[in-house]
Amino acid sequence: MYAFQYERAADAKAAVDMLKADGEARFLGGGQSLLASMKLRLASPSTLIDVTRIPGMSAIRMEGDELVIGAAARHADVASNPEVMRRIPALAVLANGIGDRQVRAMGTLGGSLANDDPAADYPAAVLALNAIIVTDRRNIAADNFFKGLFETALSPDELITAVRFPQPDQAAYVKFRNPASRFALVGVMVARTGKTVRVAVTGAADKVFRAPALEQALCAAFTPAAARAVRMDPSGLGADLHASAEYRAHLIPVLASRAVEQALKG
Fold first, then answer.
1. Three-state SS at 116
2. SS3 49
3. Per-residue confidence (pLDDT) for residue 1, from 0 to 100
4. Is residue 55 part of a domain?
5. 196 and 105 inside one domain
6. What is the C-alpha to C-alpha distance for residues 159 and 110, in angstroms, rounded to an integer?
7. Where is the FAD-binding PCMH-type domain (predicted)?
8. Domain tally for the chain?
9. Taking a C-beta distance cutoff of 8 angstroms, is the pair 6, 47 a contact?
10. How far apart are CA 264 and CA 70, in angstroms?
């Protein structure tokens, strides 16, 4: 490691002001990706601005029909929160499957979304549940947030403060995980609200994406068989030492069918 400054932000405005004053500074959430990058000398911020102690940033609450989760909420807190488990149990299950116990104890919702790893779990939930990402200056719809490999719609000095999740009628997340990293080789989140079905896929390409063919099939018949019958085009999907694009294309409808089965069980 190398020398750097550590600052603890009192509120969102103070955090953003500190970042604007030092272009080499970085926001610090759980640090599960940033600190690892620093150890490998892939990142060298001059200052780490801790945003996890900002009052209200880790709160989990209901506002009307929306579940609002603060950006500094730890994965373990989301997984065990009674309101999450009651309102969107699929989100609690997803959070409980992120990394290992240490990662879940330290990693944060906002940090995961800002980092936007293409195999992360939370982006699938945000996209499938049609969530709103709340920042220090605006609201960003999930469909407009994820732009590419580790790239989001956030401005360089913009801070995620919370995520607003509409409550679906039924939802479930299933992933085929890498046994070492526990990231998703492919992960599929299915969410049904009224007559609308949204399906988000992570781990299969350079960013999370919706699967229109699966959405159309499941809008017509919300059954595991309908999902399994869909054939995904492997072009545009990722290929690496863990799985080919064709294998990932095969996994997507298989996992979607399992997600539908789980969602129907409630």
1. coil
2. strand
3. 58
4. no
5. no
6. 9
7. 1-170
8. 3
9. yes
10. 29
Reported as a single tens digit per residue, the pLDDT across 51-83 is 999 999 999 999 999 999 999 999 999 999 999
For residue 235, the enclosing domain spans 170-265
Q: Which of 166, 187, 213 is the last residue of a domain?
A: 166
Which residues touch 163 (CB under 8 Å, ≥6 apart)?
68, 69, 71, 109, 110, 113, 126, 131, 132, 133, 134
Global confidence as pTM = 0.95
Q: Are 175 and 147 part of one and the same domain?
A: no
Residues 75 and 45 in one domain: no
Give the CA distances from residue 42 to residues 35, 37, 177, in Å, rounded to whole numbers and listed in that order.
10, 5, 25
CATH number for the domain that contains residue 18 = 3.30.43.10
Residues 18/9, Cβ–Cβ less than 8 Å? yes
Taking the C-alpha atoms of residue 15 and residue 25, their distance in angstroms, rounded to an integer, is 10
**Gap between the Cα atoms of 180 and 170, Å rounded:** 30
DSSP string covering 133-180, please?
EEESS-EEEHHHHEEETTEES--TT--EEEEEEEPPSEEEEEEEE-TT
